[in-house]
Amino acid sequence: MAHENLSFVMGELAAAADYSTTGQYRGVIASTAANNTAVLASVAGQQIIGVLRNEPQAGEACEIVEHGVAKVICGGTVTRGDRLSVDANGAFVTATGAGMVCGVALQSGTSGALISMLIDKRPLSRQSFAFT
C-alpha cells in the first residue's frame, strides 16, 4: 500500500485546468500561460516542481508535494529502487536517457498503480542512490 511522509506541501498555485479526475498523484510544473498556476507535466523527462496531491478544479488551489515521500501514479512498470521521471502525461516511469529524475521508487508497480516515491529532483547524470 502506498504511503506519504510529507515534508513540504505548497498550496499557492491554482490549477490551470480541471484536474478533479485526471491529475492527482502526477507531476506538475509551473504554468507559463498564467501567473501563479500549475499544469501537469506534458513532456517526458520534464523538470517538475512536485506531485499534485489533491483533485482541484480549474482555479482551485493545488496541493503540491515538493519534498518527502509522495504517492504517485505509475506510467509503466517500475521496480523498487528505480530512479523515476515523468512521462508525457505526468505519470512516473523508470528514468532513462536525458531528462530530470523526480525521485526513487519505494515500491514496485505497473502502469496505473499507486506507489510511494521519495522525491529527489536532479539531473539524471548526477543521480546516484544506493538501494539494498
**What is the count of helical runs?**
0
Shape: globular
Identify low-pLDDT runs: none
Query: Biggest β-sheet: count, sense, barrel?
Result: 10 strands, mixed
Helix-strand string? EEEEEEEEEE
Helix percent band? under 10%
| Average pLDDT level | 88
Number of strands: 10
Cα-based radius of gyration, to the nearest Å: 13 Å
Structural class: mainly beta
How much strand? 35-45%
Termini separation: 20 Å
Structural features:
single chain, about 130 residues, mainly beta, about 0% helix
Q: What topology does this entry show?
A:
Blueprint: E1 5-10, E2 14-15, E3 27-30, E4 37-40, E5 50-52, E6 64-73, E7 83-86, E8 92-94, E9 100-105, E10 114-123
Parallel strand pairs: 2-4
Antiparallel strand pairs: 1-6, 3-4, 3-5, 5-6, 6-10, 7-8, 7-9, 9-10
Describe this structure in words.
With 132 residues, the protein is mostly beta strands. 0% of the residues lie in helices and 39% in strands. The chain contains no helices and ten strands. Strands 1, 2, 3, 4, 5, 6, 7, 8, 9 and 10 form a ten-stranded mixed beta sheet that branches. A hairpin with a 6-residue loop joins strand 3 and strand 4. The two termini are 20 Å apart. 39% of the residues are buried.
